[in-house]
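Structure tokens please, single chain.
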Amino acid sequence: MSSPELVIQVLRAELRAAGITYKALAARIGMSESSVKRMFGQKDMALSRLAQICKAAGVPLEDVLRRAADARPQADTLTPTQEKSLMANPRLLLVAICCLGNWTLDQIIETYQLSEPECIGLMVELDRLGLIELKPLNRYSMRVSTTFRWLPDGPVQQYFREHVVEDYFSGRFDGAGETLLCLPARLSLGSSRELLLKIQQLAAELARLHQADRRLSPDERDGVTLLLGFQSWESSAFTALRRA
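Here you go.
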């Protein structure tokens, strides 16, 4: 389904929720009921008409557009080829991670040694790769879902293993809102699957909070990283002490 179709679908749902029939809407915007039905039956609608209908229905236009964007099917992962393209340029990977964190263009160039033209060029490349959809005034929307993850054992995750994990765990984890846990246990396969489901739910909750906090100003938010691992594992130092 195209973006215009999704917008009309969301608008139709908003009208139903508000109890506004096509007949009532037609009276509010000075059109015949048949014309309104025909308009909603089309696959596109002029922005001026959309704004008029939203105003008449008492529905914020920005809410309709945002819900349509949220309803658009989005990928949970990139392809190996897409990830390889990111890994071929460290600056492209940097901007990709910033976009996943909903940084603005200004925030990126104020923080990192990137010029505005260079950063825009990198965002254009991310648009080409399908990670973002670049919009006027250098704004963008994500083309991946809020549950996006790097490919297991893919190019980016391999890079993280080699260069990021040690750096990440070298921190003290004693700041406000920080913690580090290493909890051994012996579980059945069923219990392990149950715990894995809860980890996935935690990741979804992180995504929800991340989206909700986008309304806050930048100085009210800080970059955080949740790094989770769950596998059958024993320290090699302990394995060396096992009885033969």
